[in-house]
Amino acid sequence: MRADRLVSLVLLLRRHGRLTADALARELEVSARTVLRDIEALSAAGVPVYAERGRHGGFALLPGFRTELTGLNHEETLALLAAGSGRGEQVFGLGQALASALRKVVDALPEGHRATADDAARRFLVDPETDLLSRRLVTEEVPGTTMGAVRRAVLAGHRLRIHYAAADQEPRWRTVDPIGLVTVRDRAYLLATRAGEDRTYRLSRVLTAEELPEAARRPDRVDLDRIWRERSARFLSGGDHLISLVRVDPARREELLDTVLAVRAEGPDEGGWSRLEVTFQDFRHAAWALWRLGTDAEALTPASLRASLRDRAAALVARYGDPS
Question: Mapping DSSP to helix (H, G, I), strand (E, B) and coil, where does residue 324 land?
Fold first, then answer.
C-alpha cells in the first residue's frame, strides 16, 4: 500500500511540477505528516525530490526525472482519460485505483503528447451528477470493505458469505458462489448461484461480506453478457409486472423511460408522439408513473389502468371544481 502511495506521490509531482504537503495530502487522502515521511523515504531511496521555501514553495522533482510510455497513440490515451472521467468507476470501489492508474499513464507519455491528451480530455464530460433538467443522478453507495471482499471473491474464485437485506425482508446470511459483477445505470449487482440456483444480488443491499477460503462452484469460463440477458428476461416475465401500451409526448419520453422496468417495443404515433410497449413493476407503479406525466402521456392498455387514471382525474375535478 505504501509503495503504491510513493509511486503516486512521484507522479503527482511530475505532473504538477510543485505541490505543497497539504495539496499532496488531499490528493493521496492521507495526513500532511504522512506526506513528509514519504518525502523522506523517497529522498533516502535516491529520488531527486527537494523542498522550495516561501509563499509559493512546496515539493518538486529535479527536471528530467521521468520515463516515457511507448505503444499508446493519441486516440488510445484519450479513450483512457475519457473513461476515467465518468462516475462508473466508483461502482466497484475502484475509483482511487483508476485515478492512480491514469496518473501513471499521463505522466509516462512524451511531453508534447501528454499536454495534448490532457487538454483534450478536459473537453469530455461523461455522466455528470445532474442531467439537463437538474435531476440528480445518484450512485448507490457500497462500503469499501464490503465491495473489496466481494470483488476479491469474484476474482479469486472463492465462495462468499454475505449478510443481505432483500426488499421487505429481515437481513439474512447467505453463502453463495460468485460468478461476476455487473453495473447498470450506476447500480451494481452480484451474479451468483446459491445451492445450484441462479441468484442476483443488489450490492447496495449487501450489509457485510466475507470471502471464504473454499473454491466457488462455478464454470471456468463465463459469458456475463449472455447470463445478464437471460436473468433480465426471467425477471421481466415473472411476478406481478404489468405490460402497458403507452403514447407519450417526445418532450416527456425520457421521464417515462426513467420509471419503467423495460421497453419492449417503440414506434411513432399521431401528432409526432411516440408509442411504446413498456413493463412496470406492478399496477400501482404504472398508475403513479403515468399520473405524474399528466396529459403528456396516455395509457392505451390495459383497460383497467385507463379506468383507474380516469377515476382519479374525475375525483380531482370534483374536489377542485367550481363551487357554484
Answer: coil
